[in-house]
Design a protein that fits this description.
It is a single chain. By secondary structure, this protein is an alpha+beta fold. The protein is built from twelve helices and 13 strands. Strands 2-10-6-8 form a four-stranded antiparallel sheet, covered by helices on one side. Strand 11 and strand 12 (about 245-250) form a beta hairpin. The longest helix has 25 residues, at about 5-25. It is globular, with a radius of gyration of 25 Å.
Length: about 325
């Protein structure tokens, strides 16, 4: 690049910066946040008003009686996650195998409001298990032993097995101390998604590490909020983008969404509506009218005006 072109480029950049600076000075405004922990974002005056209203109407989700955890990390899914045919064969060879083979949801199984199980199962050999009491599973996993061995602390160079850790070759990689929570009713969602995909689970599914789950009270109410257009808009303002048209719906962000208090009768109303959506969508029928009802109730709960609703739904 010539010196003249270089100076021209620098001059152009300085001019652009100057114009942006003038625009900010002219149109910027101070925005006091009701919930500073939710982070900051560049918002228009309409967006500022809506965000402030949302934050004033509810308390952060983390202050509700809930607990959020992520799915299990096996370290080598090809060995520990099997299809229905392999699961049935392991149980046929040793009925005791059924004790530690659990249904698991994969990413594509998780839909808004409901899960579409794809007949995948996890061999849940958690830490401390006596593998000799499950001979069929021990034999099956032994075929993968080289790929399952944890890397020794003193080893240098390339390793064909799993990362180092205090686990046996036949155990899943992480300790998952909260594993009993998988048996509870819960809300499940993917960490990375373009739209809200929060599903309700009462079938004791395990989930992979690319997803999170929430246990606690008022689950159907929270399910409606998290799948709503209002929640999608708010979370889009505070979550981190992947840069590929999707957001990271991580625990640290979900805990910040403000949730209004709810009465007993309101909770029943949301529960009935959520159950209707789950039943209808699992049958492959349209839930557009039911989702519209959810959005209407959520907007009303947060005091969103008709004009603000049109803005959020556009």
């Amino acid at each position: 690049m010539s010196i003249i072109k270089g100076y021209s480029l620098i001059s152009t950049i300085i001019g652009l910066i100057s114009r942006v600076s003038d625009f900010v000075k002219q149109y910027s405004q101070s925005v006091p946040l009701s919930n500073p922990d939710a982070g900051w974002a560049i918002l228009s005056s309409a967006e500022t008003r809506i965000r402030r209203k949302i934050e004033e109407m509810g308390k952060p989700l983390k202050e509700w009686d809930i607990q959020i955890n992520y799915g299990i990390k096996t370290g080598f899914n090809d060995a520990f996650i099997v299809d229905g045919a392999i699961k049935d064969e392991l149980i046929r060879r040793d009925p005791k195998s059924a004790e530690i083979i659990r249904p698991i949801l994969k990413g594509r199984d998780i839909k808004p409001f409901y899960a579409e199980f794809s007949d995948r199962w996890v061999i849940f050999t958690r830490r401390g298990i006596d593998i000799t009491t499950y001979p069929a599973i021990h034999e099956y996993l032994f075929a993968f032993k080289k790929r399952l061995e944890p890397k020794p602390d003193e080893f240098l160079g390339s390793w064909t097995g799993r990362k180092g850790g205090k686990y046996k070759w036949y155990e899943i990689q992480d300790s998952v101390d909260y594993w009993r929570s998988f048996d509870q009713e819960k809300i499940v969602w993917l960490e990375i998604s373009d739209v809200p995909k929060f599903c309700f689970d009462d079938k004791k599914f395990f989930i992979e590490a690319t997803a999170f789950f929430l246990v606690g009270h008022h689950l159907h109410y929270l399910l409606c909020i998290l799948n709503s257009k209002l929640s999608q808009w708010y979370l889009d303002k505070i979550t981190a983008s992947t840069g590929a048209g999707t957001n990271r719906w991580k625990k640290v962000y979900l805990e910040k969404i403000p949730v209004p208090e709810i009465s007993y009768s309101e909770n029943l109303q949301f529960k009935e509506l959520a159950q209707q959506i789950i039943t209808t969508s699992s049958r492959g029928c349209s839930i557009t009218h039911l989702e519209a009802e959810v959005n209407h109730l959520i907007f009303k709960k947060y005091g969103i005006t008709d004009e603000e609703q049109r803005y959020l739904l556009k």
